[in-house]
Amino acid sequence: MLIVMKSGASASEIEKVLEVIETLGFRGHSLPGANRTAIGVTGNSGAIDPAHFENLAGVAQAIRVTQPYKLISKDLRPERSVIKVGNSTIGGPELAMIAGPCALEDHEQVFSTARIVAESGARFFRGGAYKPRTSPYAFQGLGEDGLKMMAEVRDQFGLNIVTEAMDEHGVDAVERYGDCIQIGARNMQNFSLLKYVGQTRKPVLLKRGLSATLEEFLLAAEYIMAEGNYDVILCERGIRTFAAHARNTLDLSVVPAVQRVTHLPIIVDPSHGTGRNYMVEPLARAAVAVGADGLIIEVHPCPEDALCDGAQALTPGQYLGLVEQVRRLSEVMSESTAAHAGK
Ligand code: PEP
Ligand code: MN
Q1: What distance in angstroms lies between residue 76's CA and the mean position of ligand 2's atoms?
Q2: Residues 175-234: pLDDT tens digits?
Q3: Helix %, strand %, coil % of the chain (to 5)
Q4: How many other C-beta atoms can be found within 10 angstroms of the C-beta atom of residue 323?
Q5: Is residue 75, in this structure, part of any structural domain at all?
Q6: Within 13 Å of residue 5, how many CA atoms lie on the same side as its CB?
Q7: Which of 69, 107, 149, 287 could be disulfide-bonded to 292 (CB atoms 3.0-4.6 Å)?
């Protein structure tokens, strides 16, 4: 059930609706929007009688939800969500740039990359301290020592830290040191982990699973939101197909498909999406053109020496070139959207 409040509904009227939801044994999720607040109800196994709400002061409408998702839906919030991440945002008019190495390797590698990322004007620094590696013998990440370096990067460069957690212990650690918890493709359907990050108050970057459908992807976000954490950013990072010319097939069609259904922002990862250095820039441009809210890019001071994902890492020079291109493209995109809206 979705309860849409009148545009002038007061805080106490909203509070009253939440109270009634709780008395019925369910959970209310209030999402304020630009023009009105809507309240999603979760925790019910069957339909709820709208009569419980229809006559409460300030209620415009109580609507039964027929789709599998409630909280991610544009019915709940028609305008796009802007998610606060550290001292910046993702989902607003500015293209969000998240960049950094695949894995944090050592102090020198982390700091030299962070310097480039800050110089590019990006607001977010990425880098894994806990790495989900296919082989147990491959470099697994620096763990908490890596997170401490990330906290230093934030202090020194003012960059907001985006880093992956693979389990509950990792979530606790990333909550302490980082600004945004990344849930990797391999954990997109780790439902207990999704519930756990849903209980934190840090924004979550949720990557699409290796073979996840649109619905599975959105329901994973719904898991996080159902626990009360509404700050979810979706990320398309390529899916498995028969195509062998790239590591994954970057599915840019998912961007408009996601935007049709949800208010949540979606960014694109052309690094994992292609796995090939030479494909990253063209696909980054395509992602901006298709309307993505941001990009996440792997960059390494010396890709041939990278301990993880060197084949897709950009050199600092390539990365700076990419940023310049996508910025210009993004400006053109906003101008044309504004012109279109003015017609
Ligand atoms: C990563 O961002 O380094 C990563 C492991 O991504 P994914 O989960 O998309 O493979
Ligand atoms: Mn990687």
Answers
A1: 34
A2: 999 999 999 999 999 999 999 999 999 999 999 999 999 999 999 999 999 999 999 999
A3: 40, 20, 40
A4: 24
A5: no
A6: 27
A7: 287
Contact between residue 327 and residue 281 where contact means Cβ atoms under 8 Å apart: no
- Domain span holding position 23: 2-63
Tokens of 298: 């792997």
pLDDT tens column, 84-141: 999 999 999 999 999 999 999 999 999 999 999 999 999 999 999 999 999 999 999 9
**What is the model's pLDDT at position 337?**
78
Q: Identify residues whose C-beta is under 5 A from ligand 2, the ion.
A: 102, 309
Question: What stretches of 78-213 show up as alpha helix (H) in DSSP?
Answer: 107-119, 144-157, 168-177, 191-198
Ligand 2 midpoint to CA 273 (Å): 10
Number of structural domains in the chain: 2
- Looking from the CA of 221 toward its CB, the CA atoms found within 13 Å total 32
Residue 335 has pLDDT above 90, yes or no: no
Q: Which ligand is nearest to the CA of 134?
A: 1
Q: What is the CA(240)–ligand 1 centre distance, in A?
A: 14
Q: Which ranges in 97-162 belong to alpha helices (H)? A: 107-119, 144-157
235: domain CATH number? 3.20.20.70
